[in-house]
Write a structure and sequence with these properties.
This protein is mainly alpha-helical and 501 residues long. It folds into two domains: 7-199, Fumarase/aspartase (N-terminal domain) (Fumarase C, Chain B, domain 1), CATH 1.10.275.10; 208-222 and 301-495, Up-down Bundle (Fumarase C, Chain A, domain 2). 54% of the residues lie in helices and 6% in strands. The strands form four sheets. A three-stranded antiparallel sheet has the order 4-6-7. A two-stranded parallel ribbon has the order 1-2. β6 (165-168) and β7 (171-174) form a beta hairpin. It is elongated and about 85 Å long. The chain starts with 6 loop residues before the first strand and ends in a 6-residue tail after the last helix. It is found in: Cytoplasm. One of its GO terms (biological process) is L-histidine catabolic process to glutamate and formate. It catalyses: L-histidine = trans-urocanate + NH4(+).
Length: 501
């Protein structure tokens, strides 16, 4: 794609979909002309502060507990480099490339609003690193999520200085070599620039953007799969009637009910009230109420994270129109911490209810289906242990859903005495989502197998889901290595929204 099609960042209009597009599809980016003008104006304000030797945090003073220590003009650049090197002390496995790229575009977008005092050439280097595929190696552990994501972002900036490590064209190398191979030149940071680059919530927000995008797909797939289970168990779709949900008008509940009916439209596998049973079990009857609550959570979190994508989150913030330099707490990750925990809890419930539906599929005491969905029970175990696996993963999620945001620990000699743990919350959210996908994959493959034991036309959405499954996974006639099937089903859910196939 040519540069004229690049996504022009202005700091105020970046969407979650665009973050994902840059992070995963390597879509090129640029700075809007308005952003360039604002960045230049903001830098002029920093230069004026230095000339007049004003006492301004992070420009003419040290950081954190050292905010009362004055720094001479000749040492300001050295101060910024020291800041990056000393703060780049993350540990653990590195973030995946997509997370690193999301962090980069989010930091660029925040700085492009012109409230941070960064040099234009410094910001443009970060833009070019993103466009040319120079991806800093950023360890996952080490952020308290309060003075921003200091450690992760410092590792990002190290590469801009020709230090640290980066991945370039699939190879891990020194930051210096990566820049050189990409025909880029390291920068020497001026006053305020190091602080501007690392004081923000971009690690946790990057994780949340990617998680939200994936969660939205999982939400849609959960309902198609649930609908397939309803058909396999000859469920009663009257429970999804719009009249019922109009009198409890939660938007997510109404939408989930509508989609269930849409997926089951024209099905010959469902039943009427009283035909086989008067009511279904909760895991079938209450799908709109449970899934709908997750839908509403997704919508709330989406709006909150979108705001954060277009926020200024460093400190201090320079207001060139008024001449004010305000030290505040926009770097504090509490808004992201809370929604990351909230989303993890909401998404885990999709897996909780899914596992219960899987149990109804494999347990002959709860259905008219063969035990464990095998035609030759005894000699063959069928999907007996698949349900064990779902139960195990669901229980793992219950541990992971303990909120990180309720924790805090003082840092920086008690100057930073309340922290968000937002990055921890966002990191474990991704693990929860991966687990939800696995549990849904198990229900998907079990529901597909259960369909084999009766006849009749499938619904509009469920027929597509069933056909997608059978294109790569045959029905189970006798025991085989089920882990292969489950991995393939999981891959389908990672790649596709079933209702569109």
């Amino acid at each position: 794609m040519s540069i004229q099609h690049a996504l022009a960042l202005d700091g105020t209009s970046l969407s979650i979909e665009q973050v994902v597009m840059v992070a995963r599809k390597h879509h090129p980016i640029s700075l809007s002309s308005n952003a360039v003008a604002k960045v230049l104006h903001s830098r002029e304000m920093v230069e004026e502060i230095i000339r007049e030797e004003k006492v301004v945090y992070g420009i003419t003073t040290g950081f954190g507990k050292f905010s009362d220590v004055m720094i001479s003009q000749e040492d300001v650049s050295h101060l910024q480099e020291n800041l990056i090197m000393s703060h780049a002390c993350g540990m653990g496995e590195p973030y995946p490339t997509e997370v690193v790229r999301a962090m980069m575009i989010l930091r660029i977008n925040a700085l492009s609003q012109g409230f941070s005092g960064i040099h234009l050439k410094t910001l443009q280097l970060l833009v070019e690193m993103c466009n040319r595929g120079v991806h800093p190696i950023i360890p996952q552990q080490g952020s308290l999520g309060a003075s921003g994501d200091l450690a992760p972002l410092a590792h990002m900036v190290l590469v801009m200085l020709g230090k640290g490590e980066a991945e370039y064209q699939g190879k891990r190398m020194s930051g210096k070599d990566a820049l050189q191979k990409a025909n880029l030149t390291p920068v020497r940071l001026g006053a305020k620039e190091g602080l501007a680059l690392i004081n923000g919530t971009q690690a946790m927000t990057a994780l949340l953007c990617l998680a939200l995008y994936d969660a939205r797909s999982l939400m849609e797939n959960a309902e198609v799969i649930a609908s397939l289970t309803v058909e396999a168990l000859h469920g009663i779709p009257k429970a999804y009637d719009a009249q019922l949900h109009a009198v409890r008008p939660h938007p997510g509940q109404q939408e989930s009910a509508r989609r269930m009916l849409q997926h089951l439209a024209n099905s010959e596998r469902t039943t009427e009230q009283g035909e086989i049973r008067v009511q279904d079990a909760y895991s079938l009857r209450c799908i709109p109420q449970v899934h709908g609550a997750t839908r509403d959570t997704l919508e709330y979190v989406w709006q909150t994270v979108t705001r954060e994508c277009n926020s200024v989150t460093d400190n201090p913030i320079l207001f060139s129109e008024t001449g004010d330099v305000i030290s505040g707490g926009n770097f504090h990750g509490q808004p992201m911490a809370l929604v990351a925990d909230f989303l993890a809890i909401a998404m885990s419930e999709l897996a909780n209810i899914s596992e219960r539906r899987t149990e109804r599929l494999v347990n002959p005491q709860l259905s008219n289906l063969p035990a464990f969905l095998t035609p030759n029970g005894g000699l063959h175990s069928g999907f007996m242990i698949a349900q064990y696996v779902a139960a195990s993963i669901v229980s793992e999620n219950k541990v992971l859903c303990h909120p990180a945001s309720v924790d805090s620990i003082p840092s920086s000699a008690n100057q930073e005495d309340h922290v968000s743990m937002g990055t921890t919350a966002a990191r474990k959210l991704r693990t929860v989502l991966a687990n939800v996908r696995k549990v849904l994959a198990i229900e998907y493959i079990c529901a597909g197998q259960a369909i084999e034991f009766s006849t009749g036309k499938l619904g509009e959405g469920t027929s597509k889901a069933y056909q997608r499954l059978r294109r790569i996974i045959p029905k189970l006639e006798e025991d085989r290595e089920l882990h292969v099937d489950l991995a393939l089903a999981e891959q389908i859910l990672q790649e596709d929204i079933l209702s569109t196939n």
